[in-house]
Structure formats: structure tokens, C-alpha cells
């Protein structure tokens, strides 16, 4: 099939809106020009709004999200520091492995894949740490491998309830700018996000939004972790003037300007509501096909990605291959232990109802070709009914 467009339903990189792509198509420019701060200072300011970070600051690093995981750790912790983490999917697991490699003393709670941050286990461990040896508590807000969203506010509540001073680290790579995230209100000290998901840009830029407390930890506690490229001090000295300590990706900045404008024009609350509606339609569609999500229950459902278990006897990798080769549609694969058992529909970024109906239609046709005994059309029909009802309600509510 060579005609028409290729359909991208992976949970990042997401579709880059034409408006953003056009904004990035500009000639190279002098990154030290006197007018560069006119662009960059506004980006720093508006990123704070996107993170709902009133008092801290946001760093922009020319790396993918993984680099910014590292930046968060290196700038605030020392080798041997005790940290509390949880592994409930590929990405939360990779952050655990990174923390170990960087020399942290990691207590990693193992959680069944399909659930998220274990508040009860975290509470037990925090309550037992009367000496406040734990310096950092880590949470992956949205586990992209399993389609599970965790309760960050709940982690803040338990830290506060025990008067525990640990820094709160959050991976928001597949949540921030798509689903509700409140850095100040939830007392998040270091929040990591990437350009290629909710921010609707290509991969290659990432953001680290930090609280005053994280900045103070960087300054006063003199973290001993070796750092150079990602060092806060070097960034701050230049960023305050609107510049960078190395050659920044200026095209990205033009794209980011437009993606932030688009998010604010729609309104962040409306962006979150749209993601919820689109995700709920996909979930209804999956249920309509008689298939199950990896997420263990509604309290874990992710509004940015659904991980779907294929029926017994069907190879999820074959579904992916067929979708791509026969129907020019990309879905996300099952990662690590979910490989071959799961495919994922990314429903985040620049997306609408009909695109989600298209994703379900492509899933149905590929599943049928791969031998799944489903009723073609049942998923689309269920999502169709939900979208019509949800949009009618939205019109009525004015
Ligand atoms: N964290 C989460 C939740 C992710 O989904 C990803 C990538 O998909 C990462 C971290 C790693 O980010 P990157 O691939 O931008 O390095």
C-alpha cells in the first residue's frame, strides 16, 4: 500500500503539527546574536507555565529524555545516597538501572506490571526512615510500556505526612503537556519531560523543571556526583541571559515556540480533557473487541497510551508487522517481558477523534490478518458511540 499517508500511533515521537514543522524550517542563525534572548527567555517562562512551576526554573537540554534523567540525578545527589524507586515497566526499570550505575544506593520496589507507584510500600519505607537517610524519592508518572499513570499527589501527601525532606523526582516524559501535572501543588522537585510526546516536536530536546528546593540542593549540599555537560551552574549562568553554554538547537526553539502557543491557545485544561476523551474512546474500542489492557484497573489507566494484550495464540509482533507493512500504520511494540504479547496505541499529542477511530480500524484489520478472532468494526463502533456522546455533552455544556 503506497498511497496516502503513513499513520503514526506510537507513544512518541508523536505527530508534529504542520504549524510546528513550518516554524522549524528557518535558516541557521547566530545562537549568540543580540536578539536570541527575545526567543529563548519567552520559552523558559512559558515552559514554567506548562509544568505549573511558579517559583523554580526549567532547563532545556539538547538530549532525549534519558539524558535529562541523568541531569536530575547528577545535579542533586552524591554517589552512595539512598533513594527510593519503583519498577513497574520498562521505563521505570531503566531509571532504576541508571541510578544504580551512577552509584546511588537504590531501594527499588518491584511492582506487578499493570500497576503504578505503590503508595503503601512507599509509605512503609518512608515511615521507617526516621533518620531521613533517603535523599530522593522517584516516580514514573506515566509508564509508557504498560499504559499506567501513577498518583504523584499521593506520594507528596505521604512525604508530607511523615515530614520527610527527600527530593521528589518525577519522570513526566509521556505525561507532561498531555495529562494533568502540577509541579508546585504536588511539590515535585525535579520533573523530566521530552520534546517528542506532548510537546509535539521531534525527539532531541528535553526539559528539566526544578523547584527552589532542588536548586538549593544543587547549590548548598554540593552534590558529589560528577557532572559537566548537564551541570546546573553552567546552564544558569548562561540561561539567565537567554543563552546556552554550548551550541543550542535553534530550530527546535522556533518549533517549541509554536507548540507552546498551540497548547496555550487550546488551553492546558482543554488539552488534558481532549486526551482523556480520546483515550477513553480507545479504551471503549478495545473493550468492544473483547481485548484487555495491561493496566490492572481504571485507577491506573493512562490517557496517553494504551497497552493491549493480544488474544492467546496471536503474536503481537506479527500484528505490528502486518499493520506496518500492509496498512502503513505504526503501533508501539510490547517492551521487555511484554514483547510478543502486547501492542500499544499512543493517543497523545496532535490527535483527534477520527485519528483514534483510524487507529482502532487499523488495529482491527491487522488483528484479523494475524488470526485474532475478533469482530471487525466492533472496536470502531464502541469508540464512535462514546465520542459522539462525549462531544454532544461538551456542546451541551457550552
Ligand atoms: N521515560 C518514559 C516514561 C518514556 O516513555 C521514555 C521514552 O519513551 C523515556 C523515559 C526515555 O526518553 P527518551 O527516549 O526521550 O530518552
Automatic annotation (TrEMBL):
PROSITE patterns: AA_TRANSFER_CLASS_5. Pfam families: Aminotran_5 (PF00266). This is Aminotransferase class V-fold PLP-dependent enzyme. Keywords: Aminotransferase, Pyridoxal phosphate, Transferase. SUPFAM superfamilies: PLP-dependent transferases. Transmembrane segments: none annotated. Gene3D superfamilies: Aspartate Aminotransferase, domain 1, Type I PLP-dependent aspartate aminotransferase-like (Major domain). GO terms for molecular function: transaminase activity. Residues 60-294 form the Aminotransferase class V domain. Its cofactor is pyridoxal 5'-phosphate. Belongs to the class-V pyridoxal-phosphate-dependent aminotransferase family. InterPro entries: Aminotrans_V_dom (IPR000192), Aminotrans_V_PyrdxlP_BS (IPR020578), PyrdxlP-dep_Trfase (IPR015424), PyrdxlP-dep_Trfase_major (IPR015421), PyrdxlP-dep_Trfase_small (IPR015422), SP_NH2Trfase/AEP_transaminase (IPR024169).
Amino acid at each position: 500500500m503506497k498511497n496516502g499517508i503513513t499513520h503514526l500511533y506510537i507513544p512518541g515521537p508523536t505527530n508534529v503539527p504542520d504549524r510546528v514543522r513550518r516554524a522549524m524550517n528557518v535558516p541557521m542563525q547566530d545562537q549568540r546574536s543580540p536578539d536570541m534572548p527575545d526567543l529563548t527567555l519567552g520559552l523558559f517562562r512559558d515552559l514554567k507555565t506548562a509544568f505549573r512551576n511558579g517559583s523554580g526554573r526549567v532547563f532545556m537540554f539538547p538530549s532525549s529524555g534519558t539524558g535529562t534523567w541523568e541531569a536530575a540525578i547528577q545535579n542533586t545527589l552524591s554517589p552512595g545516597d539512598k533513594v527510593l524507586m519503583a519498577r513497574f515497566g520498562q521505563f521505570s526499570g531503566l531509571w532504576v538501572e541508571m541510578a544504580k550505575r551512577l552509584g546511588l544506593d537504590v531501594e527499588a520496589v518491584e511492582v506487578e506490571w499493570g500497576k503504578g507507584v505503590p503508595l503503601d510500600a512507599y509509605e512503609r519505607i518512608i515511615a521507617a526512615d526516621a533518620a531521613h537517610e533517603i535523599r530522593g524519592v522517584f516516580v514514573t508518572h506515566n509508564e509508557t510500556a504498560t499504559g499506567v499513570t501513577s498518583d504523584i499527589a499521593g506520594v507528596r501527601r505521604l512525604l508530607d505526612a511523615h515530614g520527610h525532606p527527600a527530593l521528589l523526582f518525577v519522570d513526566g516524559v509521556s505525561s507532561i503537556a498531555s495529562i494533568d501535572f502540577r509541579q508546585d501543588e504536588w511539590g515535585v522537585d525535579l520533573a523530566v519531560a521530552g520534546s517528542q510526546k506532548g510537546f509535539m516536536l521531534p525527539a532531541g530536546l528535553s526539559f528539566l523543571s526544578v523547584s527552589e528546593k532542588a536548586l538549593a540542593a544543587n547549590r548548598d549540599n554540593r552534590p558529589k556526583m560528577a557532572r559537566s555537560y548537564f551541570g546546573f551552574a553552567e546552564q544558569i549562568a548562561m540561561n539567565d541571559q537567554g543563552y546556552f553554554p554550548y551550541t543550542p538547537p535553534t530550530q527546535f526553539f522556533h518549533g517549541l515556540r509554536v507548540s507552546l502557543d498551540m497548547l496555550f491557545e487550546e488551553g492546558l485544561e482543554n488539552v488534558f480533557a481532549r486526551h482523556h476523551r480520546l483515550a477513553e474512546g480507545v479504551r471503549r474500542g478495545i473493550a468492544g473487541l473483547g481485548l484487555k489492557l495491561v493496566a490492572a484497573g481504571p485507577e491506573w489507566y493512562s490517557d496517553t497510551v494504551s497497552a493491549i494484550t493480544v488474544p492467546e495464540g496471536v503474536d503481537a509482533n506479527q500484528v505490528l508487522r502486518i499493520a506496518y507493512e500492509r496498512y502503513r500504520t505504526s503501533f508501539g511494540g510490547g517492551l521487555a517481558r511484554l514483547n510478543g504479547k502486547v501492542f500499544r496505541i499512543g493517543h497523545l499529542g496532535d490527535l483527534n477523534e477520527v485519528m483514534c477511530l483510524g487507529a482502532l480500524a487499523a488495529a482491527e484489520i491487522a488483528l484479523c490478518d494475524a488470526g485474532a478472532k475478533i469482530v471487525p468494526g466492533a472496536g470502531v463502533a464502541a469508540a464512535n458511540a462514546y465520542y459522539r456522546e462525549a462531544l454532544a455533552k461538551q456542546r451541551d455544556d457550552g
